[in-house]
Amino acid sequence: MESFIATNLERYADTQGVLPERLAEFGATYREQGYLTREQLYDIAYESSTRSAYHVERNPPERCRTVTANVLAVDDDFSKIQLLTGLSGFKAPTASCVLTAFDPDRHAVVDTRVWASLERLDRLEGRKESFDAADYVAMIEPIREIAAETGYTAAEVGYALFAYDADVREGTLH
């Protein structure tokens, strides 16, 4: 599994995935401030999905700061995602970017490609094309197991799973 992660991490740069360096920058800001502003959330959402990022602008600025501060006050992954998805422009995949930015050791960016890779590796069952907080929890558990087995961070495992699907998928994504 370690060589699988290493090989696919190398492939990640050739995908259209979120840039790990950008998430690291957002994470440093988040840890320093203890919250994210609406503008910072917009930038993260834009990294994740350029099409829907504009929805973030519907959130009152104070709500953005409050919700992202509250995310840091809870330990439960389901609750963290649920809080973030209460903001306009944030479904579970985009919310996972916020968590990954803050704590790449414990969190990963998840989406259809990551789910499909976990299914191919017999770590999940069934196909999924939309995700909620419970689906994030379902995905992050095997991602953390793989991270523990291989010595990679959860974020790196997520990026490798994304790249693996991009490499092996035949046909279109949806």
Describe this structure in words.
This protein has 174 residues and is an all-alpha fold. Helices cover 64% and strands 0% of the residues. It is built from nine helices and no strands. It is globular and about 45 Å long. It starts with a helix and ends in a 6-residue tail after the last helix. The model has no long low-confidence stretch (mean pLDDT 95).
Cα-based radius of gyration, to the nearest Å: 15 Å
Quaternary structure of the protein: single chain
Principal-axis shape:
globular
Work out the number of β strands: 0
The low-pLDDT segments are none
Provide the β-strand percentage band: under 5%
The end-to-end span amounts to 27 Å
Succession of helices and strands: HHHHHHHHH
Q: What structural category characterises the helix and strand content?
A: mainly alpha
Average pLDDT for all residues? 95
Write a concise keyword list for the protein shown above.
mainly alpha; single chain; globular; 174 residues
List the helices and strands and how they pair.
Layout: H1 2-12, H2 20-33, H3 38-48, H4 61-73, H5 77-85, H6 92-102, H7 112-120, H8 133-150, H9 154-168
Helix pairs in contact: 1-9, 2-6, 3-6, 4-5, 5-6, 5-8, 7-9, 8-9
